[in-house]
Write a structure and sequence with these properties.
Blueprint (H helix, E strand, L loop, with lengths): L4 E12 L2 E12 L3 E5 L6 H8 L7 E6 L5 E4 L13 H5 L7 H10 L15 H13 L5 E5 L7 H18 L2 E5 L3 H4 L5 E6 L1 E6 L1 H5 L2 H7 L24 H6 L5
Parallel strand pairs: 3-7, 3-8, 5-6, 6-7
Antiparallel strand pairs: 1-2, 1-4, 8-9
């Protein structure tokens, strides 16, 4: 069962230039719980996260964060000047000093220890997402906020990242608020789903949401998912590719 409530929003509303961005949005995340925000582009998902993080002020409503809650944030995208010499080591220590042992520890946890001295500009999409996740983990957060954590990653790599996020939740007993534009792949990686389209269209368990008329109207009928039930007798590298030694043995993706 989920633990203490880490964050709660009540009746969050926001208008920009006369346009309603969010209306009466209620959300809560508990320790040891994964909550996923889904919705179409422009639904207000990232805006709601910015309000929770204190980067944007809502016109109405409130955000309550439990005392002493440490938050780790993984942004949706990262833009780095191509001519700026920036290694993974330097990137991870821009905001806070950390010994190499700690950097290696968090990179190892996300499967990217070998990238410590790599240039950020040379990373693949999957490697970049793992480094961003490692940076969020440096704070030893009670709450992880992940904005589109599998963006730019192929389907195999996405499954591995969702498995990794689930492992982090179990190991650290943190709460996780995750943003996705699509419920299909994230289904088996979350406990609670909120479908947002400026207001909360529907919420509940993944199975409940995917059959809700509001969800179906936005996304169409969700297919039966097999992403996390197939035999997975192989591993992916940080690029999302199957590790060659195990590929030679053969594996069934079902």
């Amino acid at each position: 069962m989920p633990g203490e409530r880490l964050i709660e929003t009540r009746d969050i509303g926001l208008q920009l230039q006369g346009r309603t961005i969010l209306e009466d949005v209620n959300l809560s995340v508990h320790r040891d719980e994964i909550v996923t925000l889904i919705g179409p582009n422009g639904a207000g998902k990232s805006t709601l996260v910015r309000i929770i993080l204190g980067l944007l002020k809502a016109d109405s409503g409130s955000v309550k964060i439990a005392p002493k809650t440490r938050i780790g944030y993984m942004p949706q995208r990262l833009t780095i000047d191509a001519v700026l010499p920036l290694t993974v080591r330097r990137f991870l220590t821009l905001a806070q000093r950390c010994p190499d042992s700690r950097l290696r520890e968090v990179l190892s946890e996300v499967g990217a220890e070998q990238l410590l001295d790599s240039p950020m500009q040379a990373l693949s999409g999957g490697e970049t997402q793992r480094v961003l996740l490692a940076r969020a983990m440096l704070r030893e957060p009670d709450l992880l906020i992940l904005d589109e954590p599998v963006q730019g990653v192929d389907v195999g790599g996405q499954e591995e990242l969702y498995r990794l996020i689930g492992t982090i939740r179990k190991r650290h007993r943190c709460g996780i608020l995750m943003i996705s534009h699509d419920l299909h792949l994230v289904m088996s990686a979350t406990d609670e789903v909120l479908c947002l389209n400026r207001h909360v269209c529907c919420s509940g368990t993944p199975d409940t949401v995917r059959s809700d008329p509001s969800y179906v109207a936005l996304f169409g009928k969700a297919p039966v998912l097999t992403s996390y039930s197939h035999r997975h007798d192989h591993s992916h590298d940080a690029h999302g590719d199957v590790i060659e030694e195990e590929r030679r043995k053969g594996c069934d993706h079902g």
